[in-house]
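**Sequence with structure:**
===
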Amino acid sequence: MTQIQDEAELRAIVGQPLQRALDKDRDRLTTHHVEWLRHSPLCLLGTSGADGSCDVSPKGDPAGSLVHVIDDRRLALAERPGNRRADGYANILTNPHVGLVFLIPGRGDTLRVNGRARLLRTDDGGPGYVDALVVKGRRPVLVCEVEVEQVFFHCAKAFLRSQLWDPTTWRPDALPSRAEIAHDMERPDDSVEELEAYYGAQYSANLY
């Protein structure tokens, strides 16, 4: 097994990108980018800590409520109640560089945004646009505001290869349920039945 040591060796294997792949980068949001963000209900937020440790966290809301476009250089994501680990946000406090991938169900192409983030409080009134991120009457816990440095559309090959949106390939029951995993690895003192109830209707009702 030979480890790849430098970019020259990497490029000898994967090749050089086509010029059109390089030219699609933008440093600000266009109309097409804004429309994509308006219709996206899910993004993946990638961060890195000062020590180089990494985190990728999914962020989801109804389309139109996930992200607010402030202007052509800034966007904002709402943070909702969760497990309070906040690994990615802790990373942002020491290293503001972030990468985001915005998805639209059924679409293979995605929108990638790279930039610098900052965290804003909402318990002191918050930024002026915070009301645009209210869902079911609940304000965000905080706001992650991103200054766009690079934005571009990514091709669909990964999603086509994975057949992610093809329901005939879905096998959700091939693995233990979330309750069974939680019982085995996180909450052994709770029965599977109790955890099934916890991750059922009650879980969905407390999203906001």
In short: Residues 31-39 form the longest helix (9 residues). The chain is about 25% helix and 25% strand.
